[in-house]
Amino acid sequence: MAISHKDQYVRFIVNRGVGANDRVANSVDSSLSYLRSVSHHFGIEISPETLNSEADVQLLANSLEGVRRPRTIGNYVSAMRQYVAIVHELGFLPNENLTIANELVEMTAPEVA
Fold first, then answer.
1. What are the residues whose beta carbons fall under 8 Å from the beta carbon of 92, sequence distance 6 or more?
2. Nearest Cα to 56, choosing from 46, 65, 68?
3. Pick from 10, 19, 32, 94: CA 20 to 30 A from residue 45's CA?
4. Which residue has the higher pLDDT, 97 or 3?
């Protein structure tokens, strides 16, 4: 699975100071690793469509309870919240009206033989 807007995510968290004081571990790499772990666990692409609100973060985090340690879930939540922040700040929110319009087009489009 993948992370949409990965490069923008990395720039965003670096600009927010993530990893600035690292001595041993690389916090930026860790954040990416946490998102990849969430993606892999749920079999989803991390994208504005799958992760764009605190409700999404909580839904995924709650689903991990009992499967991952609380500290690990906390790390996942931190990385997911940063992703939600970039989605909002850089305007990557999914366009619900466009999605509805596409569904209507698909429903009314003639079948192609």
1. 4, 5, 48, 52, 86
2. 46
3. 19
4. 3
Tokens of 74: 């906390």
CA–CA distances in Å: residue 74 to residues 45, 57, 61, 112: 20, 11, 8, 49
Q: Please check whether residue 23 lies inside any domain of the structure.
A: yes
Q: How many domains does the chain have?
A: 1
Instruction: Please report, for residues 8, 79, 86, 109, the alpha-carbon distance to residue 11 in angstroms, rounded to integers and kept in the order given.
Output: 5, 14, 10, 41
Residue-number span of the structural domain to which 98 is assigned: 6-108
Distance in angstroms (rounded) separating the CA atoms of residues 48 and 90: 11
Which band of pLDDT confidence, cut at 50, 70 and 90, is reported for residue 98?
very low
pTM (2 d.p.): 0.77
CA dist 76 and 60 (Å) reads 9
Asked whether the beta carbons of 69 and 24 are under 8 A apart, the reply is no
How many Å apart are CA 55 and CA 78, to the nearest integer? 14
Q: Indicate whether 40 belongs to any domain.
A: yes
